[in-house]
Amino acid sequence: MFKRPIIVHPFLFAIFPMLFLLAHNLGKISLNAAFVPAVITVCFTMLSWTVLTFLLKDVQKAGLLVSVFVLLFFSYGQAYRLIGMTGFNLTVAGVSIGLEWIMLPLWVLVFFTCAHFFVRISKEIDNFTRIFNVISTSLVLVSLINLIFFNLKTVGVKLEQRKIKTARLKLQNTRGDRFMLPDIYYIVLDAYANENILRELYGYENVDFLTYLKEKGFYVANESSSNYCQTGLSLASSLNLKYLDDVAKRVGIASYDTEPLKQMIRHNYVFDFLKQYGYIIVAFSSGRSETKIKNADIYITPGYDFDESHHAFMNTTPIPEVLKTMGMNDLFDLHRNRILYTLDYLVDTTKQEGPMFVFAHIASPHPPFVFRKDGTAVNPKGRFMDFDADWLIRKGGITRAEYIEGYIDQLRFLNKKLKETIDGILDESKRPVIIVLQSDHGPRSMLVWEDPYKTNFEECMSILNAYYFPDRNYNGLYQDVTPVNTFIMIFNRFFGTNEPLLKDESYFSTASRPYGFVSVTKK
């Protein structure tokens, strides 16, 4: 007689989805981000198993039902994505039926069919348990091996911080330097194109907003380009006043681990330099892990702090469809509310005793396009994704014409909100103010992520780059200045440093090899 098998598969299936996502997004999703979802899933598994055991009076059948539910629950998103990529569309009586109205009933039907089978079966139940144990153990081990090997390769990579230099302050007053130190607002507008790209490739004249900036006293660098084509690279460069060649050398150009960039953004040269002068660092929740600066002195969130890791976990499940069908706030609503919250509460930071450096990365006008030009809400078709370029412009996604229309509508509303925010900061501030309004990269509707030869580099790299100085003296600024020189110029101008400007260069790299830099400055 064989002993009855130990039942481990419900818990292994419960942690497998998180391990799978980590293993298939190596270097992009941190272990910390997976911890809370894993704990919630394991607790739910334990509770469900306990309740079903009580109802069915059979611990093995209860375990099998829980495992089936967990497998179906976390495979729902993948099935939804694959069907959506085919461009599937069902129309009944001239009305388009959303995929969720087909998938959810089908998912429920499959689960209850499996449940009926396992509840009714009386023989071979031990064999099913053994099979589930073997399958779940194999799946977990494969993902764990991938994670272990990846972390062994990346351990020990240390990045050198730029040395901090103090300098004599140029702003002085009889009340003391501290009172006259300017508050600095670094507002990063994700994928905001410059004037030429908007006019020539998007058919939109951004004259009204640019005129507003100039009338307010901003210097607008009309020929500016980003130094890199990805957010993490761009901000790691601008906040550390350097190019990233040394980083690529240390991590390897074949690496796809973005954790070094995140560390460079959280612990950057600008913060360390300004803290020497008593600056308070204020950061807003961005919804992106690269710019989640929770180590700031003041970290401001709208009550939740989801990023792309949490979106990825939720998108493996039917939760987005359930929220949508129940009329509750879904991921699009949370994304929209975060953007509005940041733009509204930037003005409130003026009440903070300073001096302060305020960092706000606003994920707009970058997709998803959740605002019409008048500010009313719109939810893109399908599930929440913050993809762009050919990850969004594809079969089952949207056309480039739809991309441009959504982008311009969102940009027009963003312009309106930015005017209110800038007016508020300038009107309410008690100290001199420096505002940097800058994009991290271009709009990227003409980018093919893994094929540079099919990418329009000018559209990918051209950015909005505008500066407001309290004395409106812009000597030293120039039309094609790039973000890597932003804080070199500010520190030279207001803090008495004497750092030479770097050569303005632009580098492209693919999503799979972010450190494989290719110079596209002349292109």
Describe this structure in words.
By secondary structure, the chain is an alpha/beta fold. Helices cover 47% and strands 8% of the residues. The chain is built from 19 helices and eleven strands. The strands form three sheets. Strands 4-9-8-3-7-5-6 form a seven-stranded mixed sheet. The protein has a two-stranded antiparallel sheet with strand order 1-2. A hairpin with a 2-residue loop joins strand 1 and strand 2 (95-97). Helix 1 packs parallel to helix 3. It is elongated, with a radius of gyration of 26 Å. Residues 171-179 have low confidence and may be disordered.
Write the layout of secondary structure elements.
Blueprint: H1 9-24, H2 31-56, H3 59-85, E1 90-92, E2 95-97, H4 100-120, H5 125-154, H6 177-180, E3 183-189, H7 195-200, H8 207-215, E4 219-220, H9 231-238, H10 245-251, H11 259-266, H12 269-275, E5 280-284, E6 298-300, H13 308-314, H14 319-325, H15 331-345, E7 356-362, H16 389-392, H17 400-428, E8 433-438, H18 457-461, E9 465-468, H19 486-495, E10 507-508, E11 518-519
